[in-house]
Amino acid sequence: MAAHKGKDCKVAVGSSKIVGLGTWSINGVTSDQLEDTEFGDDWKTFLYGMKDGGQVSFAGYYDKTDASGQTAIRTANQNETELTDLRFYVDDTSYWRPNSTGTPHSHIVITAWDISADKANLVQCSFTGKISGRMDLV
């Protein structure tokens, strides 16, 4: 089994690392279950329905100078921009990103961001996004 060290992970917009981050997660695909049980059946039976791409979240330390990372993500939320090259690295080379070859192409919409401060800690930031379509491991 090939294990991966979390310290080698990162989140990037294209090839530009988003600075300050320390956690990320992808809540993967879910599928609707459609019941197709008939009269006389002893067991319920189900079919797959529509799929939901899930969501992403990432968080860390706030950096107001990270124009191509944190600021770009907040701006994408404000401008309702679909992100097609948001990358979630699992090591130095492999990463998850929205599918770019399927029809239609996938994307992520940033649905929420938060900046919080505590007098006894560093200023924190967090981001949440909705996946439209599927994510691929590249």
Would you write up a description of this structure?
This protein has 138 residues and is mostly beta strands. Helix content is 7%, strand content 46%. It has a five-stranded antiparallel β-sheet, with no helix packed on it. A four-stranded antiparallel β-sheet has the order 3-6-10-9. It has a two-stranded antiparallel ribbon with strand order 4-5. It is elongated, with a radius of gyration of 18 Å. The mean pLDDT is 95.
CATH architecture title: Roll
Name the average pLDDT.
Answer: 95
- Separation, N- and C-terminal Cα atoms: 19 Å
Approximately how much helix is present in the residues?
under 10%
Number of DSSP strands? 11
What's the number of domains? 1
Tertiary shape: elongated
Task: Please indicate the percent range of residues in DSSP E strands (runs of 2 or more).
Answer: over 45%
CATH superfamily: Hcp1-like
Compute the CA-based radius of gyration: 18 Å
Low-confidence stretches: none
Strand order of the largest sheet: 2-1-7-8-11
Order of helices and strands: EEEEEEHEEEEE
Q: Can you tell me the CATH class?
A: Mainly Beta
Largest sheet descriptor: 5 strands, antiparallel
SS-based class: mainly beta
CATH topology: Pnp Oxidase, Chain A
> Counting H and I runs of at least 4 residues, what is the number of helices?
1
